[in-house]
Specification:
single chain, alpha/beta, Four Helix Bundle (Hemerythrin (Met), subunit A), 434 Repressor (Amino-terminal Domain), 8 strands, binds guanosine-5'-diphosphate, binds magnesium ion
Length: 450
């Protein structure tokens, strides 16, 4: 998602960074380009207006001319705006004091309700819960069967029976209590378009089960239609959030960037592919980082947790946050990532990996030049890349079998990442966490391997 927008922003910011000072005209031009970029990403018109107005208020008259890094200041302002429209902070589930916690999924046909009911159950299981699924889509006989198959893969029980959806939902809760399940995810029937009958049915189910969370499942690929659907559902159902699906097929990201502002409810989860593991909590700050091409270090750490030691990853991030992240650390990260197996998917999150590489379906071999370049540096150069002058660059290029341009690119990217990281929200917290762990000694060490 967001590839198109990401490309546009990259162009805008590269031009801004190239300037030592920014005039009012430069800022105006950048704002115009940002506006165009957002419109082309299919972001809701009112949301675009709001974003640009807020950026203007922040940047016009700001002392950009005297700032040392005016370009960075603009990028930071855009980053903050993106985080805001994407929902601010990630949604945290609060479990019901008296289980089960009930989650109701609604949405149009084909949006991905059934698939994501199973994904959600899998996610709850990973959180240490005992979820159960309820198949309340009795519209098509195959719907419950589809849910059972997916639930089987996840290892979660399903309750359903051929009566009516409201009865099934109610009995599902009783069954959960009986067999000691603490989370119930209810899958419901959808229609091709909003219709009164479907709304009425899901409203009745909602009344019967009194869900703690009602999530609307919407298809990111349908853009502003998905946002309109969410508005309509919210009037009937009082949504708590959105599960945004088919994010893998959506290059523009218009729905993601509009739904919170238009509907007033955030994206809770993102579904990024057909497989059950293609599912994640939606983190506005990480997503904004991804859009701005900073890589997504935090998501990377989350995923890496199963393959590498979390503590090592956190240490690296702490170093990043403190500006002590050297090329050696980067190499170590690369090697950890390689251990995790198939790279595509993860690679987009890794800062400093060239865009062409990020977008390609790649294998390890494409990372070789980066490794070669770093290996050809002296330890001093790796720790303090700013000392790498022209002749050192030529030596490194010759040593690694690459070109000076390749070396320059890697170093430029590295510098940008370092600058960015210092401004990235969330990093300071991790940095602190890393320090605390160090203080609490080896006992706090937690090893997790697949
Ligand atoms: N590529 C992709 N396909 C998805 C995603 N989520 C769901 N699908 C597919 O979308 C289709 C409809 O999903 P389904 O769960 O049956 O939708 P429902 O009618 O709302 O229950 C299925 O073929 C799913 O495999 C996703 O995140 N990415
Ligand atoms: Mg379904």
């Amino acid at each position: 998602m967001f590839e198109a927008l990401s490309d546009r922003f990259e162009g805008i910011f590269t031009r801004l960074r190239g300037r030592g000072r920014l005039s009012q005209d430069d800022v105006d031009e950048a704002l115009r380009e940002i506006r165009m970029a957002l419109l082309q990403a299919d972001v809701n018109l009112l949301v675009v207006r709001d974003i640009v107005a807020r950026l203007r208020a922040e940047l016009v008259g700001a002392d950009l001319a005297r700032s040392l890094t005016p370009g960075q200041q603009v990028v930071k302002a855009v980053h903050n705006e993106l985080v805001r429209v994407l929902g601010g902070t990630a949604l945290r589930i609060t479990y019901a004091p008296r289980p089960p916690t009930v989650v109701l999924l609604a949405g149009l046909q084909g949006a991905g309700k059934t698939t994501n009911a199973a994904k959600l159950a899998r996610w709850f299981k990973q959180q240490g819960r005992n979820p159960m699924l309820v198949g309340a889509d009795l519209q098509r006989p195959a719907a419950v069967e589809q849910l059972r198959v997916l639930a089987g893969q996840v290892g979660v029980p399903v309750y359903s029976e051929p009566s009516d959806p409201v009865t099934v939902a109610k009995k599902g809760l009783e069954e959960a209590a009986r067999i000691g399940r603490d989370v119930v995810v209810v899958d419901t029937a959808g229609r091709l378009a909003i219709d009164v009958e479907m709304m009425e049915q899901v409203r009745q189910i909602s009344e019967a089960v009194q869900p703690h969370y009602t999530f609307l499942v919407i298809d990111a690929m349908t853009g502003q239609d998905a946002v309109a659907t969410a508005e309509a559902f919210h009037k009937t159902l009082a949504l708590d959030g959105v599960v945004l699906t088919k994010v893998d097929g959506d290059a523009r990201g218009g729905a993601a960037l509009s739904v919170k502002e238009v509907v007033g409810k955030p994206i809770a989860f993102a579904s990024t592919g057909e497989k059950l593991e293609d599912f994640e909590t939606f983190h506005p700050d990480r997503m904004a980082g991804r859009i701005l091409g900073m890589g997504d270090v935090l998501s990377l750490i989350d995923r890496a947790e199963q393959a590498i030691e979390r503590e090592d990853a956190e240490k690296a991030v702490a170093k990043l946050a403190e500006g002590r992240f050297g090329l050696d650390d980067f190499l170590e990260q690369l090697q950890s990532v390689k251990k995790m197996g198939p790279l595509s998917g993860l690679i987009g999150m890794l800062p400093m990996v060239p865009k062409e590489v990020r977008n390609a379906q790649l294998d390890d071999s494409m990372l070789k030049p980066i490794e070669a370049i770093i290996h050809s540096m002296t330890p001093g150069e790796r720790a303090e890349p700013s000392i790498i002058n022209g002749s050192r660059r030529a030596r490194i290029a010759a040593g690694s079998g690459t070109t000076v341009q390749d070396v320059n690119e890697l170093l430029d990217r590295f510098k940008q990442v370092q600058q960015f990281m210092r401004q990235m929200p969330g990093l300071a917290a991790i940095s602190r966490r890393g320090t605390q762990k160090k203080a609490s000694g080896k006992g706090a060490k937690r090893k997790k391997r697949r």
